[in-house]
Structure formats: structure tokens, C-alpha cells
Amino acid sequence: MYQRQEITSGAPWEERVGYTRAVRVGDHIAVSGTTAVDREGRIVGRGDAYAQVLYCFEIIAAALEEAGATLDDIVRTRVYLARIDDWQAAGRAHREVFTNTRPASTMLEVSRLIGDSMLVEVEADAILGGRDTK
Known about the structure:
This protein is an alpha+beta fold.
């Protein structure tokens, strides 16, 4: 039987909503939807989808590190955009993050994110040992 490891970021809404930043079970790690909000609750990259995607992956990388993984272990991402016109900026940032490996990915527009200044939310799934071995 696999052990479950819950990784928290300490964000107040984790307790309020009843979730955790990431969950590792065995070699699988699921990272919750991540927005570009710093520890003080401020939006990072206000008005800039490119900057928000990069910051989301900083948060995701920290959660993965705590779970014993890296960004190279990510096998799937989901990028939710408040404005589909930001797809190129978001895609450029995504490509910069994934220079060593390329995960399966979905990018789509949603009608709204929780905060009006949030342009992007990113989810990721990782599998330890999921790195490209070319």
C-alpha cells in the first residue's frame, strides 16, 4: 500500500477550502490549481499572463521539490486562461519552463478565475522517474 504525502503551501485558503498544494501517492504527484499569488496574498505579474505562468511554475516547483520531484518529472499540465487571447504569452512561458521535457498539456479559456487580477491558473501531474530519457 502506498503512503500519502500532503504538501501544503501554508496559504490560508487551503484550510478554508479543504485542499492541499500537492499530494504524492507512490510515484504520482498531483499539484492543485496554482495562481500567481505570493505569500502576502498579492498578485504577481498583474496584467501579464507570461509572468503569471512563470510564477505559477515557481510555486509548483517548490511543491514538487518537497515531494522529491522536479519540473522534469511533470507529465501533464493544464493551463486555464481568463482571456484566451493570452494563449501565446502563456504558451511562451510554458515552453521556457519545459526546455528538457515536454509534458502532455491542455490550455483553455475559463469564464472566470477567483480573483479579477488572476489571468492564469496552472495544474500539474508528475510521476517520479517520468523524465525524458532520450
